[in-house]
Amino acid sequence: MNNIAIVAVAYNRVSSLNRLLNSLLKANLTEAPLIISIDKSDTNIVEEFADTFTWPYGEKTVIKHETNLGLRSHILSIGQLLNKYEAVIVLEDDIVVSPGFYDYAIAANSFYKNDENIAGISLYNYQFNYQTFEPFTPLKTEYDTYFMQIAMSWGQVWMRESWNRFYKWYKNESYLQLKDIDDIYCFKEWGEKSWLKYHIAYCIKENKYFVYPYTSYSTNCADKGTHIASNLFVFQTPLKWSKKEMDFRFPTFPNATVYDSYNENINLYEILGVTSSNTILDLADNKKKYGDKRYLLTTKLLNYKILKSFALEYHPIEMNVIMNDEGEGIYLYDLKQPKQNKFKINTTALISYKYRIHSILSVLHKIGFKAVFTLILKKLIK
Q1: Which ranges of 160-305 does DSSP label H, i.e. alpha helix?
Q2: Range of the domain at 330
Q3: Quick one: 332 and 353 in the same domain?
């Protein structure tokens, strides 16, 4: 038996827990320990359901907390299970997994468990920038995964040693110093029930990364609960639906696509011949502070000397820089040299690039703005 436990985290949503457990029953499993950890609520219906649930793949343990811990304390308490298990797969009850999630988790844990650069393994793949909510597509390589300096809560693997390093940092009250983290980060404003913001802060302060798959092994149904006022579908992402054993191609860190905590591809520093100490990457339009940096790569229209400009043609956006595709839309500025610029690109062109014009037209057509739809279409095919 693999010493990697599946942990289903529950509170007061029976239907959500049932959906998660049903997805686990469809997985590629032969034997795996299941732990259902239930925070105390004003009903025992979840505990009763968990007790009667049949787990055909080995040991089942139901943890029933006698007092209400709250989401942050409940999630963090799961780390104690790593005293027994080599790794735990943490799944809150609004998550659904694909059949291959356990194979992926086992393989990724085996590959990365001794790498001190890695803070955890994500089952989920973002399709948006978690700060701006604009579309995000990671640059694909020959590998199945990439690296990002953002911790994950929508399906993740905690490895014993990497979790212990984080929890030691957390217990030393380093987590109280969120205000000391430079620049603008939306997670600093998240409520006190959030534990994820501390894991993200740890990654930033200690220069750690999560491993992300290009195609998700988990998706988030975003049921109404602690952080969500009503059911949402915006966090759903396509799952890798395979019931066969898979061979995974994992890169060693940092020999693959690497994104920082702003979803910026840090490989661009070398491509542009600059460094992170003198350059700001802001292709994701995160409204960063420029500080005393010399250079800025951005889509913003600013009045500084343009050292180089790139077109907005390829996706993901950094591909235009990698391909050295000269044009208008992406600019490398020298922030020490003010200059009045005349630009050849407008905001509409940038929006069309980011959101794909066919998507915009589809929305307009579906909501009934046929006149606007026809006008834009005529402009495009002129």
Answers
A1: 160-171, 196-206, 268-272
A2: 268-338
A3: no
